[in-house]
Design brief:
The chain is an alpha/beta fold. The strands form three sheets. The chain has a seven-stranded parallel sheet, with helices on both faces. Strand 4, helix 4 and strand 5 form a beta-alpha-beta unit.
Length: 249
């Protein structure tokens, strides 16, 4: 089977490409560096020739509200048009758990991307994921004044990138769901506990505080804003195992 992975050189993309190639599939790791650009449309027609499945893992280079919305709308329209012309049979996109329940510019842009997919006429599956364990350090930094990390009092259930890639690959090889699959890590705990656990593991002395006024990437969030509300497919790699692997790597 020929599978095109948009964003195939990124964190999740590179792992997904490796899994699918190990399964014997013909996989194109698409990126602007490889001459396939969903914003300009360069190389899309050629890449789609003979393709059965497209996995869209593209991410915006800017998180500014207007820029990220323009990125996902332009990229989505160009990619879906090329897929329709090539009669692609399954469009898989990676999105975010609670993207329609959280108010910030990035999440609103992902909602716009999902709407394009749902109305495209192409059979699809949207995989909504919780945050990746690999981003715990970045989250701490974004919420810190240098000495203290302030986080909203919410639940958190991050997933390892390896687990996310495995599930995305599985979904891509299955029949289109024409709906949403939610995925999350195996451990759920208060946000501040997860971040404090990470900082302690890396020897970071910053204090972690739960603060009801704190925001998540600029947006207000509720207790269940970052975790699945219903059925979700859970990864197998918990924090301790992920941290051991990341240190070894």
């Amino acid at each position: 089977m020929k599978i095109v992975v948009i964003g195939g050189t990124g964190l999740i993309g590179s792992k997904t490409v490796a899994i699918l190639r190990q399964g014997g599939h013909e996989v194109v790791a698409a990126s602007p560096q490889s001459g396939i650009n969903t914003i300009t449309g360069e190389g899309l027609k050629e890449a789609m020739a003979g393709t059965q499945v497209v996995i869209d893992l593209a991410n915006s280079p800017s998180f500014e509200d207007k820029a990220v919305l323009e990125f996902f709308e332009t990229s989505g329209r160009n990619l879906l048009a090329a897929e329709a012309a090539a009669n692609v049979r399954h469009h898989v996109a990676l999105s975010i758990v609670a993207t329609d329940r959280t108010d910030n510019g990035y999440f609103r842009a992902k909602v716009a991307q999902e709407k394009l997919i749902k109305t495209s006429g192409i059979p699809y599956t949207i995989v909504r994921s919780t945050q990746f364990l690999e981003f715990l350090g970045g989250i701490a930094d974004s919420s810190s004044d240098g000495k203290t990390v302030r986080l909203p009092p919410i639940l958190f259930q991050p997933i390892a990138a390896d687990d996310a890639a495995t599930i995305v690959a599985d979904v891509a090889l299955a029949a289109p769901r024409s709906g949403i699959v939610e995925i999350a890590g195996p451990e759920r705990a208060p946000f501040d506990e997860f971040i404090a656990r990470y900082l302690k593991a890396v020897g970071d002395p910053r204090e972690v505080v739960s603060d009801s006024e704190a925001r998540y990437w600029g947006g207000r969030v509720g207790e269940h804003s970052l975790v699945p509300l219903g059925e979700a497919r859970l990864g197998r790699i918990g924090f301790d195992e992920w941290f051991r692997r990341s240190r070894a790597a």
